[in-house]
Amino acid sequence: QVQFVESGGGLVQPGESLRLSCVVSGVQISTKLIGWYRQAPGRDRELVANIFGMNPRYYEESVKRRFIISSDLRSNTIFLQMDDLQPHDTAVYYCNTFPLEQHSWGQGTQVTVST
Question: How far apart, in whole angstroms, are the C-alpha atoms of residue 80 and residue 35?
Fold first, then answer.
């Protein structure tokens, strides 16, 4: 059973940074494309970035030059370094495979950017 446990969210002001972590179990991240997704209130869940092993493969246009996706293969963990956060980044952030398979979503981690 593949599981995802996200952490690292919080309340920050515009321009500040956060680093999210996603511990993956049940599959080796070196064998799967894993993505960070986010869902803002009233909006569909969207892909933010994804990575295969240690190689980033995709960034959504609005996060390019601000977010960096990375991984630690030993701990089977995916990270998302988010710099220069803005109010429109406010959302619950999740990780999961890309494309989506029949795996449950984790609880996510809330990121709120506000003055």
Answer: 10
55-59 and 33-39: which strand pairing?
Answer: unpaired
- CB-based contact 71:80 (threshold 8 Å): no
Please give the structure tokens belonging to residue 55.
């190689």
* 5-8 contacts, C-beta under 8 A, 24 or more apart: 5/106, 5/107, 6/93, 6/94, 6/95, 6/106, 6/107, 6/108, 6/109, 7/109, 8/109
The DSSP 8-state label assigned to residue 69 in this structure reads E
Q: Tens-of-pLDDT digits for all 115 residues of the chain?
A: 999 999 999 999 999 999 999 999 999 999 999 999 999 999 999 999 999 999 999 999 999 999 999 999 999 999 999 999 999 999 999 999 999 888 899 999 999 999 9
